[in-house]
Amino acid sequence: MRPIGENGREPIAIFRGGDPPRKENSRKMKTPTLTLFGRNIPIYGILFMIGLLLGAVLGAIRCKRRNIPRMEAVVAACFTAIGGILGAKLLSVLTSIDVIRANHLSFWEVMRNGFVFYGGLIGGAIGMFLYCKIYKADTLAYFDVFAVSVPIGHSLGRVGCFLTGCCFGMEYDGPLSVVYKEAADHNVPLNTPLLPIQLIEAFCLVVLYVVLEITYFKTKKKGLCTSIYFLTYAVMRFTLEFFRGDKVRGIHAGLSTSQWISLGIVIAWAVIFALYVWNKRKASSAPLAPQSADGASAGEQSAEQKEQNHPSGN
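RESULT FIELD:
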């Protein structure tokens, strides 16, 4: 056994490989924190902020590749962050409405706790889209810059989930299983071996980030990195959801809320790609205007004749 994090005298969670631990009814509800300047700051929040800053720094470096002024990228990031926070909170409330009603949670309790990544992703994308439309920016170029940064920041968030206990995996009594002695999330089954699905997703996200970073600097094709990110993460998330143990996230017709969103992303991207191919083929098959021997089109010739027949008065 090896402690992963400590809160007081007992570890928050341990990796294990021995006999199953004895289940207990007692529960401790402490959030792992880091003491800085005399204040206890939740580790999840620290990792979240590090993820945002890291994504912003990497995005700033990437801007030069697409000729995007860094100050404009900062403003776009603000639009994205506002949309992301609002979207993450809104989807959290929608998926937890029954829990909120059952526990009579106040508005501030609801606002203080709970964010859903997919809500943040969709909200952030809407914020970015609005910025590009308002300021007439190159939408695909901006999306590519930020799409590459998302996985690395998200991976740190998943590590925070692991330390907090949320987004936990299914019961699994095997190599690298994890046991929570205490957890901030009251839904976590204590003293029960679980699959560390949060760390598995974090690893997959790091791999995805490396692929996107290489792709970004290998090609200048706009929209490619955005497509790779959305499609790959949608498939990844759809698969990993089968190994989650937190049923509170919502199950509908056998699939979780995130799985339905993943399906929606794949279908939407398939439709967009089909329309793109159809429009490209339509443009390439359009008949060209007939040209004269000197290369001028019929329209240009008629304009010249009209000018000769009706000279200007200058």
